[in-house]
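In response to reviewer comment 3 from the previous cycle, which asked for concrete evidence that the modeling workflow produces usable outputs, we include below a single protein chain processed end to end. The sequence was submitted unchanged, and the resulting structure tokens are shown without manual editing.
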Amino acid sequence: MPAALENLLKTWQSLDLNNPPYILPGDQKILDESKTPISSIRDFADWHSDKDFGQRLPHELQAGLLPVPFVGDLRKARVFLLTLNPGFESLDLYGEDTNGDFRKDLVNNLTQSGLDSEYPFLTLNPKYSWHGGYKYWSKRFSDLIAFFQTERKCSFRQSLAFIAQNMAVLEAVPYHSTSFKVSHKTIATMESCKAIRSYVHKELIPRALEEKILLIVLRANWFWNLDASTSVIIYKQSEAIGSSLSLSSRGGKAIQSFLIKS
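The workflow returned the following structure tokens.
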């Protein structure tokens, strides 16, 4: 295992996966000092019985959900999408509480062990098509799925698996929220944020410069701090708003070309 990836995974070994709040010890202190709002909601029962139901701050970090610093098989993915943080809806809490397979796969994703070989990008797995993550990413990848279904002369399901095996997403901040309001200063000192950026700069950029992988910064290049090149696509602010990966977008075209060649 590359040292940068090993260090990234080691960072997450300090997280207690059985007892919320699910925030790295090294992040908790910084978030507390910066007075970043953190939700006290621990599970779906807390959510629907909360006295402030429907009135909570949309930028609260949801510490009752497992963090998602990345999605996909980091060892085998050939396209890495860099963005800001995972979104939030109440279905996330309901899914983790009631669907044991889903929670297990979230843990496997975080530890990068026991990944589903067909759908390592877990929110593209058809068995989780009830989840908001499937709706979000299958829509983003819809043009690419349709293209490779034709290109590879395969079923929709097989093309979906092809995309799931080749894609990974990296989040600047691993904690869920409906909207985002963590300060740049706070992010710069958070343990999780430093770990993911170090992984990108030490491991992924050299591989991208050798054109072994493709990097696409969908959002927050103020954090990722990458320079554009043939294999590093950086979305402008106008592109980042929708983060489109259609075949008419720069990112979609780049993925199409890269996966055809490789």
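The mean pLDDT is 95. We consider this sufficient to address the reviewer's concern, and the full set will be provided in the supplementary archive.
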